[in-house]
Amino acid sequence: MSQQSSYPIRCPKCAAEQTISLYDAINVADEPLLRKQLLENKLNAVTCPDCGFLFRVDKNLVYSDAGQKLLIFLVPTPEEKYEQGEEQFISMLSELSGMLPDDMNAPSVHLVFSRVELVERIFLIEAGLDERLVEYIKYTLYTRNASQVDPARKALLFNATDSTPDHLCFVVQDVETRKLEAMLQYTREAYDGLVEMFSADGNSADLFELFPGPHISARALLLREMSESQEPESFDSDPEN
Ligand SMILES: [Zn+2]
Asked: How far is the CA of 14 from the centre of ligand 1 (A)?
């Protein structure tokens, strides 16, 4: 069942306050219209009664689709707080697992940190793709196109609309301007090759080691690698001191 609660919301433009009902959880198998609203960026949208400003409230949201055996937790989190976001999610899940009936068929549980990641994940799962493999592909695309796709400034997003039976499509998005800038392709044949390679004995462990989760993101991994390599090797004494 979908769930709504009331929230006091302040207009970001004129600061007028109103109490409004927003979705905490949506069950799109029961209410497919909510999936449509989410994809059209109309879910949890608010119009200010005073100035008419239309804005979207970014809040925690649970997306469930029984048909796809899919459960995605959206916890809006800025880049610099990804680590804390993961820790909070893990402790929340362990609390939750005590409340679930034993015979419940566990769906695959996903954690995303933005609405863009949520929409991407929905399309990816609906296309029958594996999220770790797709992030692995992104990792290789970032590495191969390092001059064009700097993970610090560019995000790579799976693009279901332009993907074909022969190619998986990825768009390059500028993180700051949100502009879509370029398209990269990856052959479905190569994807199938990866599926085979990683399903071979022992190899799937490598993929889980690279992307242990719960937040599975090639860009987050690359940013972490970059910040670790920039950390000073040693603390040489400063001649000034
Ligand atoms: Zn307003």
From this structure: 4
pTM: predicted TM-score of the whole model, two decimal places: 0.89
At 181-212, the pLDDT tens digits run 999 999 999 999 999 999 887 778 889 999 99
Look at residue 195 and tell me if it is in a domain.
Answer: yes
Taking the centre of ligand 1 as the mean of its atom positions, its distance from the CA of residue 67, in whole angstroms, is 39
How remote is the CA of residue 19 from the centroid of ligand 1, in Å? Answer: 13
In a domain, 27, yes or no: no
What is the distance in A from the centroid of ligand 1 to the CA of 9?
10
Amino acid at 14: C
- Strands of the chain (E only): list them: 3-10, 17-27, 45-47, 54-56, 61-65, 70-74, 108-112, 154-159, 167-174, 180-187
Q: Could you tell me the distance, in angstroms and rounded to a whole number, from the CA of residue 18 to the centre of ligand 1?
A: 10
Q: Which range marks the domain in which residue 165 is found?
A: 60-228
What digits encode the pLDDT tens for the residues 118-138? Answer: 999 999 999 999 999 999 999
